[in-house]
Description:
This protein has 288 residues and is of the alpha/beta class. 37% of the residues lie in helices and 15% in strands. The chain has 10 helices and 8 strands. Helix 1 (18-27) packs parallel to helix 2 and helix 4 (117-124) packs across helix 5. It is globular, with a radius of gyration of 18 Å. The chain starts with a strand and ends in an 8-residue tail after the last strand.
Amino acid sequence: MRIDLHCHSTASDGTDTPAELVRNAAAAGLDVVALTDHDTTRGYAEAIAAVPAGLTLVTGAELSCRLDGVGLHMLAYLFDPEEPELLRERELVRDDRVPRAQAMIGKLQELGVPVTWEQVERVAAGGSVGRPHIATALVELGVVPSVSDAFTTEWLADGGRAYVEKHESDPFEMIRIVKAAGGVTVFAHPAASKRGLTVPESALAELAAAGLDGIEVDHMDHESATRARLRGLAGELGLLATGSSDYHGSRKTCVLGEFTTDPEIYGEITRRATGAFPVPGAGGSAER
Length: 288
């Protein structure tokens, strides 16, 4: 089985619609794909309706958190999307996205970059607006050569010249909330230092003690030595080690299935989840 547990659609900052994502996942030879848009479940219905035969969809989200001033992303899988506390927390993050993006645009304009809200809104195309949309606008304007080049301290990285903080959840509280919604939590790309500051690895033990289920080990932003170290830490802490592409369509260079999750690990994730079922075949209901 080929299993990719971290992908984005136009519901947040990917370039494939949810329906295109599941069709492209099947065409790429995947058996399982997870839809993990940023702080939203808005793409679920479209993806579920379009799941082709031979592919299984895992519903999820990538949730914005912050620990000791450092941002981190928490992948949550197979939770009840209507659970009130988790829904409320996602809405807090979502509602902060537009004013935050507008504030970053203002900073960029002060730096002499002729980016506008209208341009970023067009790039987002109705998705949950975020830094990748602003980064795409900077590419369009010729300010940077690629989206990843916008995520430096020169521009949009944490602490960068145009960076603006947004509402982000406490990861310990988020683990509790996701578990109460029947979901499973995995710390996304924990050592992706190319993106800016990362949470110290010593914090993994505390997160594991709080109920964290796993860490994303195999990821394009982790070099081979980093992946080996994280796999060892996962073993020491009793955490599941996942792998995934972090696919964003044409917005990033990663491709579907670039990294994958072991079928036994996937089986354990589905065993632990009580909030939703994976969706097989040609559509169905993701709710238990």
